[in-house]
Every structure is written in C-alpha cells, then in structure tokens.
From TrEMBL:
Protein name, as recorded: Glycosyl transferase
Pfam families listed in its UniProt record: Glycos_transf_2
Residue stretches of biased makeup (Low complexity): 348-358
The organism's taxonomic lineage, starting at the top: Bacteria, Pseudomonadati, Pseudomonadota, Gammaproteobacteria, Lysobacterales
Segments traversing the membrane: 248-270, 282-308
InterPro entries: Glyco_trans_2-like (IPR001173), Glycosyltransferase_2 (IPR050256), Nucleotide-diphossugar_trans (IPR029044)
Stretches the record annotates as Disordered: 331-358
Species whose genome carries this gene: Pseudoxanthomonas broegbernensis
A Gene Ontology molecular function term of the record: transferase activity
Keywords assigned by UniProt, alphabetized: Membrane, Transferase, Transmembrane, Transmembrane helix
Annotated Glycosyltransferase 2-like domain residues: 29-176
Length: 358
C-alpha cells in the first residue's frame, strides 16, 4: 500500500529531479546607422563568443545598405525611423523579449571576446547591469577630447548621483530583464548612456564594471559622435536629471545663492539705517526683498518636488520588482545559458502503513 504523508508526498514512491526550466535567452542589441562596413564583422564576432545569441540589428535610417547586410548575415533587422541612439534603445527594450540584453555599438570597436565575461559576471553576482569599461589599446581608438570629456562628465555625474562608474559613456553593456523592462528611456541621442547610469544609481541597482579592450574604427567606417555638440547635450542631460531626480538639492542651491546675494546687498543698507534711521536706496531694498522671497519660493518648490520625486521613484522601484530576477549560469561551450537547478533529492522510502481516514 502507498500512503500519503502530511506534506502530500506519496510514501513508497521515488521522487525524481525537478524538470529543468527553459534556457536563458541572450539578445544582442546592435544600434546601427550607416555601419555597412562593420555590421557583419560584429555579428560574426558575437556569434562566435556567445553561441546561441539572438542578434537584433536596429537600423537607424541608414542609407548604405546596413539593414540588408545584417539581414543576409541572419540577424533580425528592425527599422527605426527616429534618428538617435536613445530612440533605438527605447525601441529595443520595448520590442525584444529576452532574459539578458547585451548592447554594443555596431562600429566594431568593442571586443566581442569579452562578452562571456560580462554575461557571467551579471549572472554569478546577481547584477542588473555590467558596463564594459574601455581600455584603449591604440592611440587612434580614443581621441584625447573624448577621453577628457568622458572623465569630466563621469565625475560630474558621480558628484551628483553617486560614484559607481569609471566609464559612464561606454556603449558596451549587459542588462538583466528587470533593468530593460523598467527603464523609461527619455533621451533621444548619445546622452542615453548617462540616463542608463543614473537610472541604475537612482534605484540602487547592483552594477559592476569589467575592463574591456577598445580599438579604432576600421577603414571605411566613420564616427557619428561630435565631441562638442554631444558633450554639451550630455552635460544638459546631467543637469536635467539633477533637477528631476534630486530637486531638493537643486532648488536649495538656487535658494541659497539667492539668499546670499540678498544679504550681501542688504548689509550696507542695514548699516546706514542703524546709523541714520533712513533707507537711502529704495530700489536696492526692493531687490533684496525680492531675492529673499525668491529664495523662499525656490526652497518651497524643492520640498514639494522632492515629495513628488519620491513617489515616482517608488513607482519605478515597483515596476522593477514586478519583473522576476534573472538567475542562471553561462558556459562558453554551451549553446545557451542554463539556469541553475536544485540538486536531485534522494528517494523517499515508504514507512509503515497507517490506516486511511474514514
């Protein structure tokens, strides 16, 4: 006779291993605009380093046949009419379904052989984003202006939002599904990298950096990045995010500056009034009063918007937690990532039979 224990397990029957979950899906996201000279090379490189990866090329209004070459190479090609890397990333995170997202530029400057290390770090440490920090191996790979601008902008963002990155503007990243499906993506251009970093810092996501080789563009491939124009756009994005995500500090600085100016201008007037009982310069006195009122209004705005921002952050956090965490391990010799499973349980032996309830 086989009987059932209080836990519902049939005694006398062997309990086998649990069925394996579905394998993890890794999606390669390749933003491209006029990358006909390099897109096939990039696809071949990542297919070799990540067997079984799903390749998605997002053709951002190219006019050199990039989409056709990618399609011939076996990639899923998505046409994005709105120009700008931010528009591409917004579309990619919305349309592609996967467990792990690997984003890389289509200019063949990033090392495809480093992809397994980035994916493994994400899974082994339970992270939401891993950034491939660029280590240039040749002088032509990383122009001096870009290097200095990257450091300044990274330090500026670290001062305002927290220091977690050495290369905030890298285009080589791995994301968890949680991150991809909770990222709002407001930026439209190259400033998207700044928004990616600030989103992780705001929600206090676990992130990491892995040094990766960075090479020069191959001949026949031209960069779309303008040092001054895109640098100013990134700086503007940092200022906008500072106001939106830390409004109390932003408006407190404005209030403090306004109040300090009011006090400096009012000091001579106060000294004259104490000596003579007269206020000789009424326009200055009115200006001091206006600056003091402006400081009070700025502080009130900061307090109100800080409460609103906290509510928005909580909503983002709940959207983030609504997506199950990615758990698993990846092996280079496997055609896909296999999730970790619990070890097989030993067989349960039958005990003495008990009378069945009437």
């Amino acid at each position: 006779m086989v009987r059932t224990t209080s836990a519902g397990t049939a005694q006398g029957a062997r309990v086998g291993p649990s069925p394996l979950p579905a394998p993890l899906r890794i999606a390669l996201l390749l933003p491209c605009r006029n990358e006909a000279a390099t897109v096939r090379r990039v696809l071949d490189g990542f297919r070799a380093s990540l067997p079984g990866v799903e390749c998605h090329v997002f053709d951002n209004a190219s006019d050199d046949g990039t989409g056709a070459i990618a399609r011939e190479a076996g990639a899923h090609v998505h046409a994005v009419a709105l120009r700008g890397k931010g528009n591409v990333i917004r579309r990619a995170f919305a349309d592609v379904e996967a467990d792990i997202y690997l984003m890389v530029d289509g200019d063949a400057t990033y090392d495809a052989d480093a992809a397994p290390a980035l994916v493994r770090r994400l899974l082994d440490d339970g992270l939401d984003m891993v950034v491939g920090a660029r280590v240039d191996s040749e002088r032509a790979a990383y122009r001096a202006g870009h290097r200095v601008g990257n450091r300044l902008l990274t330090r500026c963002a670290a001062l305002l939002f927290g220091d977690s990155f050495e290369d905030m503007l890298s285009g080589y990243r791995v994301f968890s599904r949680r991150y991809a499906k909770s990222f709002p993506a407001h930026a439209s251009g190259f400033e998207i990298e700044t928004e990616l970093a600030v989103h992780a810092l705001q929600l206090r996501m676990p992130v990491a950096e892995v040094p990766t080789a960075y090479g020069a563009r191959p001949e026949g491939s031209a960069s779309k990045l303008n040092t001054w124009r895109d640098g100013l756009r990134i700086l503007g994005t940092i200022a906008r995010l500072f106001k939106a995500e830390r409004p109390l500090l932003f408006f407190s600085l404005f209030a403090g500056a306004s109040l300090l100016l009011s006090v400096v201008l009012a000091a001579p007037l106060l000294a004259t009034y104490l000596q003579t009982g007269l206020v000789p310069r009424f326009p200055t006195a009115i200006l001091c009063s206006a600056l003091a009122l402006l400081a009070a209004l700025a502080l009130a705005c900061g307090l109100i918007l800080d409460t609103v921002t906290r509510g928005r952050t909580e909503a983002k956090r709940m959207a983030y937690l609504a997506v199950p965490a990615t758990r698993g391990s990846w092996h280079r010799d496997a055609s896909h990532a296999a999730p970790r499973t619990a070890p097989d349980e030993p067989p349960v032996r039958a005990g003495p039979a008990a009378p069945a309830p009437r």
